Amino acid sequence: MDARDMTTVPANEAVSARPVVEPAIDRTGGRLRPPSARPFTSWIDPPVLFGAGTVILGLLIIEALVRLGVISSLIIAPPSAAIGGLFHGEKAFQLLVATKLTFGMVFVTVLIEIIAAVPIGYALFRYKHFGKAYEGWLASLFAAPIFLLYPLFMVILGRNNVTLIVMGSAAGVIPVIVYVRLAFLSVPKTLIKVGKSFNLTESQIFWKIMVPSGAKTIFTGIRLGLIYALINIIAIEYLVDAGGLGRLVSDSYFRFDITGTYTAIIAIAAISITCNAIIDRIEKMLR
Q1: Which helix (H) or strand (E) covers residue 236, if one does?
Q2: Contacts of 249 (CB under 8 A, 6+ apart)
Q3: Is the per-residue pLDDT at 4 higher than 70?
């Protein structure tokens, strides 16, 4: 068709002659999705798969070395036996009880850290002079071995779970405060001005602008708080024989139960992974 013929074609027919690309429809949920989307593999995260594959490969290598006698089973337990101890054996119930106890204390500790750190961090951000005055103090406390104060806390509070929670909170709340303040300082002032132009209240600006904008930095501090809380709680459980997985590791180690020791260590790693997964989920919800 040449240019002269095109003049005789009605405009609506010319438009309808153009190819129309319709978006693909996800029949499972009834939602529109791009044609290139992969409904069955969209949940796969390559970095997670690579990390999991590396861990599995490392465990298989260790298993082979222990089975061949290259590594003594008195030093490292076979991974298959250590993992199997999580699900069967006479210590499975004891391990479950200890895991629930330690997980509960870590969860409460992180919750206390968030409740205490967010207002303090916001106050240090809001009042600039206080923030600058105490910034060095917080950095020094961040590097200080607060864990060594556990005998003092045990004398004051007693040898119980409250001491473990207080010690974990005392060590973990400091990085959360530091990162909360940094998160609010990193919020663009333009966003706050836009919020004020819409007559938002201080509370609305805080929850709808500042928290979502600084969520990434805030949750970095929460992850550090989780690490410090978990390390302190497990270490004190190990030292003072005060319940939980730390006590189980201590008992198994001093009775030369190598398999039981590594089983308890795997349970500790499972707690850390679970808590991090919960934190990641909450971060995605807020962002």
Answers
A1: helix 215-240
A2: 234, 238, 261, 264, 265, 268
A3: no
Angle at which helices 215-240 and 150-157 cross, to 10°: 80
| Contact (Cβ atoms closer than 8 angstroms) between residue 85 and residue 259 | yes
Global pTM?
Answer: 0.75
For 206, counting Cβ atoms within 10 Å of its Cβ (0-12 exposed, 13-18 middle, 19+ buried), the class is: middle
pLDDT for the residue 32? 46
Pairing between β-strand 24-26 and β-strand 31-33 as defined by DSSP bridges: antiparallel
d(CA 171, CA 193): 36
The amino acid sitting at 190 is: T
Residue 216 is which amino acid?
Answer: K
Q: Which helix (H) or strand (E) holds 33?
A: strand 31-33
Measure the CA–CA gap between 123 and 114, rounded to whole angstroms.
Answer: 14
Give the span between the Cα atoms of 127 and 230, in whole angstroms. 32
pLDDT band at 44 (very low <50, low <70, confident <90, very high): low
As a whole number of angstroms, the distance between CA 172 and CA 179 comes to 12
Strand partners, 24: 33
Give the CA distances from residue 34 to residues 21, 37, 38, 285, in Å, rounded to whole numbers and listed in that order: 11, 5, 9, 23
256: three-class secondary structure by DSSP: coil
Mean pLDDT over 103-132 rounds to 91
The count of residues in the chain is 287
Alpha carbons 54 and 1: distance in angstroms, whole number: 61
What H or E segment, with its residue span, contains residue 25? strand 24-26
Measured between alpha carbons, how far is 170 from 141 in angstroms, rounded to an integer?
10
- Round to whole Å and give the CA distance between 211 and 219: 10
